[in-house]
# Entry
Amino acid sequence: MADYVIRRVVISTVFLVVILTGLATASSEDNFDGAVWKFQMTNKLNPSSVFVGRFRVSNHILYQKASPSDPKYSKRVGENHPNHKKTRFEVIDFRVFTQIGKKMSTIKGTGRLSYKELGEWSGLFTDGDGNNWKFKAERIQE
# Structure
């Protein structure tokens, strides 16, 4: 019985590490390592203020596209600090887009997210001005 429990704990831990770090092996169709995530962030005080975007996570580093035609998400924009079913990430020069009109802005800040289900995390993002945002990320590509 103890061996069964130990094996389950080890398998669960390895599974969470792979999910949290985005260390999925790139397939022959991909041009990069890691996982691509789409996100939506909604201002807690002004729910009509919504930003969306995408980023890639590989080896605890967050990347975004250096330009719209960048297929590799090559621009380093932050770091991820996973801790079991929670994670903290810090970003600088993080590109976000308005949901309507797709106007781009760059922000910096810190997010604190919790695991919700496979490929989905949510929590709070605090930008460099101290504004709080509901933040939801969903894995869309490995």
Summary: The chain has one domain: 2-141. Residues 9-30 have pLDDT under 50 and may be disordered. The longest strand covers residues 104-117. Helices lie at 2-21.
